[in-house]
Specification:
Distance between the termini: 27 Å
Strand content: 25-35%
Strand order of the largest sheet: 1-2-3-4-6-5
Shape: elongated
Structural class: alpha+beta
CATH topology of the largest domain: Transferase(Phosphotransferase), domain 1
Number of strands: 33
CATH architecture of the largest domain: Orthogonal Bundle
Number of helices: 13
Length: 631
């Protein structure tokens, strides 16, 4: 379908994703010239009532929401039998790809991403929508840092009590809540549990529960406790770990009860306001006494009980009784002395510790040091005009004081200056602005890149909040950045290679997904038939121009190559591009089912004969490249 135009408006340019029920394409809205994402229901499901219902449910859920952290719905419709949704196009990576690339994210970044996911879910929950499939694969990270929650394909209206066939097994088992794993309906706190799992993966680089089968993983969600975060990420602050694990409590009533509540706690953790955070509720198992079969054994006391025996004794003389009493008293005195001495030795040798020097340590390091020494660190925060936030500046008791293990040590930690003002970022490059804000604990977010003939590319044009505004650590500054300006040249009638050179001279590039239109006129072969945007349109420097090229089928250079497909149980999407030194152009797209040959032969076609490097992508991931000669 990559050559198709849906509803006489959306030209499908390239396949960018394949799901269980739909295929996602990058498309160009021919009315506006903008990139959009078009999700098309697979043709084999057009007559399947369940899949059609799920597709419509996604459209209904998306139509109820407009939020800067949600992939927004732009259009919905049918073209013949093809049902489609048009969403905003997010250029970037999934959170799953980012985690695999980085190994694990820093606690501050993980917390900021989580806050944005929660912002999206709060909006969805307020509109009566439960996502039910929160996972890193459904979190999109835009190239400029924006976070977008996607794929409400199995979302459920919170006031709907019916579940369609198969809903209980939808979603991804690694991110299931315990109630979803046991087949119960999901609710607001189920989404928050999944957010906790995603946050755990960001902090540690791994999912909390894994196993050889989906059932094994589901059972762990129901009964197992995750490995402590500090085992994998010792640098992660205890307060952030606390929020993550509270979201992952087994019982819904012990989790946060709203996305806003969890986001508020995360901000407290980031700002060091730990004294205001909610404690976790941990249930202790009730231990019931166990009796031997048949009841208590005659003549033996049950645990915790007192048994009295009646024994007939011979009378003894009074002085003999006094000696017995004296002996018992002396024995008691000796035993007590041994006990007191033993306790003193234990307290002095085994149960005592000396206070380390914490001053100058970063607070998370100081907390771990205290815990290793058997001490309980209590944190007090104050503003300090010169010492950076998070550094221990005082301690009590002093260094080398002897304490019992379990005693508390009070650590006074700097919160940095009592107030700080935002600097003037206008005119700075984005990297310089990031370097300026980093010591203040403030994050830069690029809100938009705009065409500008007056401001050099990559310089900041506007900031929000403005300069001199009071701010604190954890705040975000949004900026509008100049993209520079270039005018799109007229490419019509030029050979493709010449058009690429023309665009490069103008500071622009050609879109890799070139479209073709067949013609019988040999004079038009390999020349530009149309372009988007049109000539003289002002655009951002470095932008891309999409072109359609004339071709005469009989004049195309061709070569056959044999693919080496991976062994898999699912459909494999294949894209092949050619690179001759003037850029990469897609020349083949197709899908191969699991039962297809692993070494199919495909034909590559291009406008000009010559030697090329062909690059093969499986499911949009680069696999390998080889040389080929097209004749």
């Amino acid at each position: 379908m990559s050559e198709k135009i849906l509803a006489d408006r959306y030209r499908l340019v390239e396949q960018i994703g394949v799901g269980g029920m739909a295929i996602v394409y990058r498309a160009i809205d021919q009315r506006t010239g903008h990139n959009v994402a078009v999700k098309v229901l697979r043709p084999e499901f057009n007559q399947d009532a369940e899949f059609v219902s799920r597709f419509q449910r996604e459209a209904e859920a998306a139509s109820k929401m407009t939020h800067h952290n949600i992939v927004n719905l732009l259009d919905v419709g049918m073209d013949g039998e093809n049902r489609y949704l048009v969403m905003e196009y997010v250029q970037g990576k999934t959170l799953k790809e980012l985690i695999k690339e980085k190994g694990r994210l820093t606690p501050a970044v993980a917390a900021q991403i989580t806050i944005r996911i929660l912002s999206a879910l709060q909006h969805a929950h307020q509109n009566g929508i439960i996502h039910r499939d929160i996972k890193p694969q459904n979190i999109l990270v835009h190239a400029d840092g924006h976070i977008k929650v996607a794929d409400f394909g199995i979302a459920r209206m919170a006031n709907s009590s019916t579940l369609t066939r198969g809903d209980s097994v939808m979603g991804s088992v690694h991110y299931f809540s315990p109630e979803q794993a046991s087949g119960q309906a999901a609710n607001v706190t189920s989404d928050l549990y999944s957010v906790g799992v995603v946050m755990y993966e960001m902090l540690t680089g791994r999912v909390p529960f894994d196993g050889d089968s989906p059932v094994a993983v589901a059972m762990q969600h129901l009964h197992a406790r995750p490995t402590p975060i500090e085992n994998y990420a010792p640098e992660s602050p205890a307060a952030i770990n606390h929020v993550c694990l509270m979201a992952m409590e087994k019982k819904p009533q012990y989790r946060y009860q709203s996305a806003r509540e969890m986001a508020t706690e995360l901000r407290m953790a980031l700002e060091g306001r730990t004294e205001k955070m909610q404690p976790r509720v941990v249930e202790k198992p009730m231990m019931a006494p166990v009796q031997p079969a048949g009841g208590p054994v005659q003549g033996k006391a049950e645990p915790g009980s007192v048994r009295y025996n009646t024994v007939r004794r011979k009378p003894v003389k009074s002085h003999q009784g006094l000696w017995i009493l004296f002996s018992l008293l002396m024995t008691a005195v000796v035993c007590y002395g041994l006990y007191v001495g033993g306790v003193a030795i234990y307290e002095k040798v085994v149960n005592s510790t000396t206070v380390p020097d914490f001053v100058g340590m970063e607070i998370t390091v100081a907390q771990r040091t205290a815990q290793r020494s058997g001490l309980n660190p209590e944190v007090v925060e104050i503003n300090h005009p010169t010492i950076s936030s998070g550094t221990v500046i005082l301690q009590a008791p002093e260094v080398d004081t002897t304490l019992r293990k379990g005693d508390s040590v009070v650590l006074t930690v700097s919160k940095g200056p009592s107030s700080q003002k935002l600097p003037d970022l206008v005119g700075m490059s984005t990297q310089n602005a990031i370097n300026t804000l980093q010591p203040m604990g403030v994050t830069l977010m690029v809100l938009e890149r705009v065409v500008s003939s007056e401001v050099q590319a990559d310089l900041i044009i506007k900031q929000t909040p403005e300069a001199e505004t009071q701010c604190k650590s954890g705040d975000i500054v949004q900026v509008v950045v100049s993209g520079g300006m270039a005018f799109v040249p007229n490419l019509l009638g030029q050979p493709l290679s010449t058009a690429q050179e023309t665009l490069a001279a103008a500071g622009l590039g050609i879109n890799a997904s070139v479209s073709y239109v067949d013609t019988a006129d040999a004079a038009l072969h390999n020349t530009i038939a149309s372009q988007t945007p049109v000539a003289e349109t002002p655009v951002i420097l470095g932008g891309q121009v999409a072109v359609t090229v004339y071709r005469v089928p009989e004049l195309l250079a061709k070569a056959k190559v044999i693919l080496d497909l991976p062994q898999t149980d699912s459909l494999t999407s294949v894209r092949i591009s050619l690179n001759s030194g003037n850029g990469e152009v897609t020349v083949f797209q197709g899908e191969f089912p699991a039962n297809a040959s692993r070494h199919p032969e495909v034909e590559l076609k291009t406008q000009e004969a010559g030697d090329y490097t062909y690059r093969v992508y499986f499911n949009d991931k680069f696999a390998y490249q080889h040389q080929v000669t097209l004749k």
